[in-house]
Design a protein that fits this description.
An eight-stranded mixed beta sheet has the order 4-1-9-10-11-12-13-14, with helices on both faces. Strands 3-2-7-8 form a four-stranded mixed beta sheet. The longest helix has 17 residues, at 145-161. Helix 1 packs across helix 7 (258-271) and helix 7 (258-271) packs antiparallel against helix 8. The chain has helices spanning 44-54, 72-80, 124-127, 145-161, 194-199, 205-212, 258-271, 276-290; strands at residues 7-11, 15-22, 36-42, 59-62, 64-66, 89-91, 98-104, 110-115, 135-141, 168-173, 189-192, 221-225, 231-235, 240-244. The chain is of the alpha/beta class. The protein has one domain (3-14, 46-63, 81-87, 122-302): UDP-N-acetylmuramoyl-L-alanine:D-glutamate ligase (3-Layer(aba) Sandwich). It is built from eight helices and 14 strands. The protein binds beta-D-fructofuranose.
């Protein structure tokens, strides 16, 4: 397979997001009308695929999906957008993971209540069936440490046997479980979210990225987006530090998936061979602009 035809594969959750735009955050036990509302496909890995497609990249999502009718919207939406889902595993369960999201028009905040009741996790046995030669980059939403460690191990094995077809591995620490930090030790790129950093007690992006260095391999690159404070990155091997300013819109309306947009745009830029500084600048530009409109569909007009 020609290098340019190779895909970026994203591993993680595919979620139904039901979104209400409210004038203000509702009072408990009140009955309110939303200003606007919609549902869309969400979940970090799935959102990253949405943004990658908007940017023109070829990509695939792998994860567990429900084959119940109510959630067929998720698979149809992937197909409509050219996101491959050939290696997903389907389960006969009535509910896929779903989230209720409140977008507060007054403050620009987004509140997410997520339910993942009984979806079986993607196992390393499921993952190992993928045709490794099809991928240039595999990105993991860090979760399910034991299985994900085996998945990463299988890519390392492929890389050692096929040095000319080496797959780049990235891991995003976002899910709120400290144990996930174990998953970064073999990653080429690590994305560290503010939520995860704060869970670890790392209260600024400088402290966070510094503390993360003891968990990663010698030549890893670390990237830490921090909302309105922009993003920083470190090339662990050369000890080079990079910083990018946030590019907030005049009026923030939809910050749901802004972090996913940053990760997707940065990966897209890096996968095109751009240097780390340029990639995080691009990530901040696209993620900032995204907060100024609803959903992800206007991203393609930005590039
Ligand atoms: C945004 C998001 C939503 C989803 C939630 C899951 O980053 O992926 O699309 O509902 O997080 O935690």
């Amino acid at each position: 397979m020609n290098g340019d035809d190779k895909l970026i594969l994203c591993v993680g959750l595919c979620v139904l997001d039901v979104i209400h735009v409210c004038r203000e955050y509702p009072e408990e036990d009140s009955d309110r009308r939303a200003l606007n509302g919609r549902w869309q496909r969400g979940g970090n890995a799935s959102n990253i695929c949405t943004v990658l497609r908007q940017l023109g990249a070829k990509c695939e999502f792998i994860g567990s999906l429900s084959n119940s009718k109510a959630f067929s919207f998720l698979t149809e939406d992937c197909r409509d957008r050219g996101i491959l889902i050939d290696h997903c595993v389907y389960h006969t369960i009535p509910t896929a993971p779903f989230s209720s999201v409140i977008l507060n028009e007054a403050s620009g905040s987004r509140t997410i209540i997520h339910s993942n009741l009984n979806m079986p996790i993607l196992t390393a046995d499921d993952f190992c069936k993928i045709p490794y030669e099809r991928y240039r980059w595999i990105h993991f939403e860090a979760r399910n440490v034991a299985e994900t460690e085996k998945m990463i191990g299988s890519i390392l094995q492929w890389n050692s046997e096929h040095p000319d077809q080496r797959i780049i591995i990235s891991v995003e620490l976002e899910n709120r479980s400290e144990q996930n930090v174990e998953l970064v030790q073999n990653a080429d790129y690590v994305f560290l979210s503010k939520d995860f950093a704060e869970l670890m007690g790392w209260m600024s992006k400088e402290v966070a990225i510094h503390n993360l260095r003891k968990y990663v391999k010698k030549d890893a690159k670390l990237v830490c987006p921090w909302g309105i404070e922009g993003a920083i990155a470190i090339d662990n091997e050369s000890d080079s530090h990079f910083a990018a300013l946030a590019k907030p819109p005049a009026k923030p309306v939809d910050s749901l998936g802004a972090g996913d947009t940053f990760v997707a745009s940065t990966i897209h830029s890096l996968a095109q061979g751009k240097p780390l500084q340029e990639a995080i600048d691009f990530g901040c530009r696209i993620a900032g602009a995204k907060v100024g409109f609803y959903g992800y569909d206007d991203i393609s007009a930005l590039v």
